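Onboarding guide, step 5: your first structure request.
Type a short instruction followed by the sequence, for example:

Predict the 3D structure of this protein.
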Amino acid sequence: MEIIVVLVILAILAAIAVPTTFGYVDDAKEVRELAKLRESLIASQVTFVKSAAFGEIGKDVTNETGSTNYYLTDNQNKSIQKYLDTKPYVLIYGIGAPSYYGGTSQEASNVYCIIYQKDNNSKPWYYDGKKWSHRYLWNNDGAKPGEDVTRAMYTIDGYNRMRNVKDSKNEDARVAMCYGYVYGNLCQNGGSYSEIWNVIKKLSE
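The system replies with structure tokens like these:
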């Protein structure tokens, strides 16, 4: 009887300790991943400053005038990826829209947001210009009644805009999305990736 009581106590302690231990392990992995992402943010900022200095702009995704979607160039991808542990599943940067500000402008060298997902099962990380989180960046459109207007980004007049992040004109910055990796593949050879936003939104908080 005493042995049974001891075993029950041990089982209860294990039931309490094991989830807690795994929680600490998961937290440690997130801290390590976030440290790498912060390094990547610095590296990407340097990369885009160099790109803007030489007017280096990736291929236009839509081939439309005033596009707000581009592919990262080979140089940009190589420079940024070396600061990450593995080839990312999703890697998208938001910079000042070259079609609005000009490719050599200060805004075009600013990294306003980042979307990063390590693999297809992990929660995406978002950088909103101030902090990193797992919270999806966008609401659907400008501040319409009933919409969540606390999100960092919205779309109006054909541009993605950063809420309360001002450009040199003291307006909400207009942002172009620069695709590096989607589904673990480089995005420089064409392809439509609009569906990726619904995918990562479902995995976000």
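Each response can be followed by summary notes, for example: The chain has a mean pLDDT of 80.
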